[in-house]
Amino acid sequence: MPAYNASKYIRQAINSVIQQTYSEWELIIVDDGSIDSTSEIVKEYLFVDKRISYFYQENSKQGKARNLAISKAKGDYLAFLDSDDLWLPRKLEEQLQQIKDKKVDLVFSDSYIIRDAYESKKNIRMNIPNGVFYAKDDLNSFLEVNKIPILTVLVKKEKVVDVGGFSEVLDIQNVEDYHLWLKLLMTNCAFYSSGNVLAEYRIHNHAATANDKQALDKIPAAFFDLLQQYPSYKSQIRQELKIKFKLLYKRNLFTKHELSIWIKKNTLYFSKTQLSYLYLFLNFLLPTKVTKRILIYLLNA
């Protein structure tokens, strides 16, 4: 559990772990440089339940916090719970059985959505369907969109360690979980999804991804990193990366300076840096909406 200034919700999150019907868990909380009362709240629980441990790091974002926790974990499986989300009581028990029965490396499930501090809207679900997924058959659909709510995941620890854990690259934070799922698929891991609701995902103004357009602006950096690591999937990643750039240009209003930054990234990610000066010159001469159209239809054609 990474936690940053989480005092408002972290008690509920911790209690949802303590209330699990499966009891042989350890909860590793990494305080990512909080300046509120997060540490005091967590330290209260250290005296109540010996299965809970606490570590502190200077603010370094989620990827590093998650990796620190993984390095301390003693078990064979990993599950992830952000400090503002909740697990339902049978979450771990059901998923441990699923991962064994389905003979897969990772399982995930449906989740309710909480839209305020205390009340779950039980009629609002993420609508995760049942299914089994393999890289050779299903990678393209996962490249299109992140299908996996991190708070619902249970995964074999050895598989996560084998691919290097979560990325700590700053440009990939807020999509570091999506980046990891894709790495696992590209190394031939199998996933199983359940339509059973096993968690509650909280939406609020201070959440890491609350206002970042589903982290669309972070996905190109994540895909570019995957291009370097998994060249055998180059054509699939490049094709979807073009689509992500098109969406980014369509959905965002840019100043000329902001657009110039994206032009440099866009040309770098497609090994067309020799063209960057041309598009930067066009951006200097033309209105940004015109330059964006040119980028959509020429650079990302």
Can you walk me through this structure?
With 301 residues, the protein is α/β, with parallel strands linked by helices. It folds into 2 domains: 2-211, Alpha-Beta Complex (Spore Coat Polysaccharide Biosynthesis Protein SpsA, Chain A), CATH 3.90.550; 216-299, no CATH class. The chain contains 12 helices and 10 strands. It has helices at 10-18, 38-48, 62-72, 91-101, 135-144, 157-162, 176-186, 219-229, 234-251, 256-269, 276-285, 288-299, and strands spanning 2-3, 27-32, 52-57, 77-79, 86-87, 106-114, 120-125, 131-133, 154-156, 191-202. Strands 4, 5, 6, 7, 8, 9 and 10 form a 7-stranded mixed sheet that branches. A 3-stranded parallel sheet has the order 1-2-3, sandwiched between helices. Helix 8 (219-229) runs antiparallel to helix 9 (234-251). The longest helix has 18 residues, at 234-251. It is globular. The protein starts with a strand and ends with a helix.
What would you report as the Rg, rounded to the nearest angstrom?
21 Å
CATH-assigned homologous superfamily of the largest domain: Spore Coat Polysaccharide Biosynthesis Protein SpsA, Chain A
Calculate the terminal CA-CA distance, rounded to whole Å.
41 Å
Elements, N to C (H/E)? EHEHEHEEHEEEHEHHEHHHHH
Query: What's the pLDDT, averaged over the residues?
Result: 93
Question: What is the CATH class of the largest domain?
Answer: Alpha Beta
Taken from the alpha-carbon principal axes, the silhouette is globular
Uncertain stretches of 5 or more adjacent residues: 209-213
Largest sheet: 7 strands, mixed
